[in-house]
Specification:
- The chain is mostly beta strands.
- The chain is about 0% helix and about 55% strand.
- It contains no helices and eleven strands.
- Strands 2, 4, 5, 6, 9, 10 and 11 form a seven-stranded mixed sheet that branches.
- A hairpin with a 4-residue loop joins strand 7 and strand 8.
- The radius of gyration is 14 Å and the shape is elongated.
């Protein structure tokens, strides 16, 4: 079974930085798109940023210039570097990946367990 394990969440003061990581493991032939989503209580899950296998990135307007998504394809890991954090960034952050298995001729998707990020003074 393929799993995404997230780490790096925690409490940080406004203006501070935090780095999340998400490592994929299991029956993976290749990973296509990896992404970070976040969800605050009472709100819908929203896309924070995504990155393709070729390294092309996309960001929500609310985080452009502050967040950077990157990946290490050799380790099947995606990162989210969060700088200049604001209280509005407080949420549970979820990693996402769509991938191909070795022997099944179709795409699959998987979600991480979520990492809580609290931005507060």
């Amino acid at each position: 079974q393929v799993q995404l394990v997230e780490s790096g969440g925690g409490l940080v003061q406004p203006g501070g930085s935090l780095r999340l990581s998400c490592a994929a493991s299991g029956n993976i032939f290749s990973i296509n798109t990896m992404a970070w989503y976040r969800q605050a209580p009472g709100k819908e899950r929203e896309l924070v940023g995504s990155i393709t296998s070729g390294g092309n990135t996309n960001y929500a307007d609310s985080v452009k210039g502050r967040f950077t998504i990157s990946r290490d394809n050799a380790k099947n890991t995606v990162f989210l570097q969060m700088n200049s954090l604001k209280p509005e960034d407080t949420a549970v952050y979820y990693c996402y990946a769509d991938y191909n298995r070795y022997t099944t001729y179709r795409n699959f998707e998987v979600w991480g367990q979520g990492a809580l990020v609290i931005v507060s003074s």
